[in-house]
Amino acid sequence: MKAIRRFTVRPVLPDPLRPLSDLARNLRWSWHAETRDLFRSVDPERWAASGGDPVRLLGSVPPARLAELAADGPFLRRLAAVAGDLHDYTTGERWYQAQPDELPAAIAYFSPEFGITAALPQYSGGLGILAGDHLKAASDLGVPLIGVGLLYRHGYFRQTLSRDGWQQEHYPVLDPNELPVVQLEEPDGTPAQVALALPGGKQLHARIWLAQVGRVPLLMLDSDVEENDLGERGVTDRLYGGGSEHRLLQEMLLGIGGVRAVRTYCRLTGHPEPEVFHTNEGHAGFLGLERIAELCAEGLDFDSALESVRAGTVFTTHTPVPAGIDRFDRELVARHFGPGAELPRIDVDRILRLGMESYPGGEPNLFNMAVMGLRLAQRANGVSLLHGNVSREMFSGLWPGFDADEVPITSVTNGVHAPTWVAPEVFRLGARQIGAQRAEDALTVGGSDRWDAVADIPDQDIFELRRVLREQLVTEVRERLRASWRQRGAHTAELGWIDGVLDPDVLTIGFARRVPSYKRLTLMLRDRDRLMNLLLHPERPVQIVVAGKAHPADDGGKRLVQELVRFADDPRVRHRIVFLPDYGMAMAQKLYPGCDIWLNNPLRPLEACGTSGMKAALNGCLNLSVLDGWWDEWFQPDFGWAVPTADGAGTDPDHRDDIEAAALYDLLEQRVTPRFYERGQSGLPDRWIEMVRHTLSLLGPKLLAGRMVREYVERLYAPAALSHRSMGPDAARGLAEWKGRVRGAWPGVTVDHVETSAVAALAELGTTLGLRVRVALGDLGPDDVDVQVVSGRVDEEDRIGDATVVPLKPVGSPDQDGRWVYEGPLSLDRTGPFGYTVRILPAHRLMASSAELGLVAGPSEELVAAAGLLMR
């Protein structure tokens, strides 16, 4: 019989065990080994059955066992020590508290997904795991972050396989009362809520759930409440589910509702109000509109409120392809804003203008969430050095007249939260060398360029560590493979072969990630005979563990999964290559440490960062990857191998895949497998172990989320907080008025005449020329602009590369025609073809970048033609 109503009945813990409840509700246990060990000792079998989830564990322990523990002196002493450690962790001073006073009092961090732990399945892939690692690292560093997301009742889908290898999706219902979250409540005990206005006089209500991530609160909005109609209850049903309007409502709730949730949380708890708002990808971009509306309600006009909001906003883009950005039809967005809907006091046209693709190459009827994110943020970044370059090129249409390298998008390369992803065995080996506290500090705060203590670890210890981790992975794979085959309909009697799957002494390659086409899951299958030879080589075999989910609506991705599964089902190779369904955090934490090689072969440059290889590297796994994302930035031959790519716009995709697959096979056959199996005088793979040592000691410190969050604090959050403080109402009005005046006057700004002291087209290196420029500024004055000379080596089309920018200074007063004369030096600091130009940019002390307005004036074509030859 089926129940007509469901309750969650929680145990009543005896008073001595009450601290267990606090420990279970703070997600620090997900990366704190001592806390997990304490819960495991409560009941090892139930701990395993609960999937390592303390909330589920405590809900299943019999009262008799609880009573026994309440009288167990050694257990109570351990409990007191762990609870005391959590108190010290959450209240003591950490890295952030030792920094200068100008840092922000609080930062709100918005993301559509957060991967904190498998016990809170609110993530689909790298974006969510990155967001979770960001929160954890912020907690370790003491950064006063407030996370904001949605609570999806189905999370992301669970993946199984049909008998013929086709991906199948399942959406288990998540009950918040069974998750490690608590409901935020008003002082009278009623649930705290936010509401959004919908067209037709309806409202979208959402409750606020709180997940405590160490020191960091994570607010999660849930629309499945009684006050909503059935349609509105389903807004937070699935991560990345539904059609356009469904997604729009999710993103309005995340951005607009998220700001209201932050205000509610700060009101109820006394937490400092955020000075900086960080938008992790465009999904949360509407948060800027809500903040503009708040300021308009306080008396600011829209333009002034926009300047105030931009000053304290950071936007991070994660996608290198336009197709990865949410875009909505103009009319759909217009229907949800303005009179009779949300933000009724703001003119709908002003809202639309923030997101419309009103630039060359854009689609003028589409509202682009990333474009809005960039227009609402004074500071923006990509997530690796290469991705920063790609992003500047991709969004250059927003800054016409500027070279792509001047587009104001910087980069902060992602990092990963080492305590979450480093295997306990790896940590213990490090702690044995330098002590547990120093090892913990090295993995969390970071700050050093190298981990020199790794050099002192004996080769034998590294070799044994790697074998232990590989052996654990073999056990894990066999268990998961057996469960998968049972789900596919196989009988136990058919599955005896699984006991021989994988070998703890064979070179193990891992490949696990989402399955969009550009990540090329099946590139390894390009030449199946060569792959079979690698798998079955008599002296130097390899074995491969593959995992990944295709988006439910992506049949092309599902076909790739099926193709890989069918190959792995072949009895000739099924002991050497496996596909594990339902890739998630729990699987990943076993997979990364157990692999010797982490394979990554995307189409370059479509991998924004690719953090899975970072997690593997922190466990001593070597990377074998296309030079994309972070690997392009930090690759050295000491750390692994770079797969050559067949770049070029004219390359046929099939031919490109053939070339790159052949290069991959060549590397494996000629360089990777010989290095792994080659033995030195000690009987150990000395050269392989040396690569593992270099990966840990030289690459390891770069890969930390602690390093990443410190960069965000120093390069983005701190400057944004200073801008926010400088942008009071009067300053915001002044800047808005100034921008309006500059835009109106800009058509009258021109470079009229340029002359140098050079008399010939040839000059010697080191020569400094005098430059004299006459400019028209229209209704503007020298205080409103920068006049610059831009110089450098030029190509055959006279484009300046690797430019040097030098400001010119005004001389005297304007002439009778109102022209100003500027002068300055031009240094010829490079040999070969050399050129220069002059330009005028708007200048204001409150702008973060001279490109902010997208305005630039340069010499006319006639003036350029009259300038004659370039210096060579």
From TrEMBL:
SUPFAM superfamilies linked: UDP-Glycosyltransferase/glycogen phosphorylase (SSF53756)
Residue stretches spanning the membrane: none
Q: Which prosthetic group or cofactor does it need?
A: pyridoxal 5'-phosphate
Gene Ontology MF term list: glycogen phosphorylase activity; pyridoxal phosphate binding
What span is annotated as the signal peptide, if there is one? none
EC assignment: the record states 2.4.1.1
What reaction gets catalysed by this protein?
[(1->4)-alpha-D-glucosyl](n) + phosphate = [(1->4)-alpha-D-glucosyl](n-1) + alpha-D-glucose 1-phosphate
Function of the molecule: Phosphorylase is an important allosteric enzyme in carbohydrate metabolism. Enzymes from different sources differ in their regulatory mechanisms and in their natural substrates. However, all known phosphorylases share catalytic and structural properties.
The protein, known as: glycogen phosphorylase
List UniProt keywords, sorted A-Z. Answer: Allosteric enzyme, Carbohydrate metabolism, Glycosyltransferase, Pyridoxal phosphate, Transferase
GO biological process terms, semicolon-separated: carbohydrate metabolic process
Q: Which organism is it from?
A: Streptomyces variegatus
Q: Which family does it belong to?
A: Belongs to the glycogen phosphorylase family.
The main enzyme category here is transferase
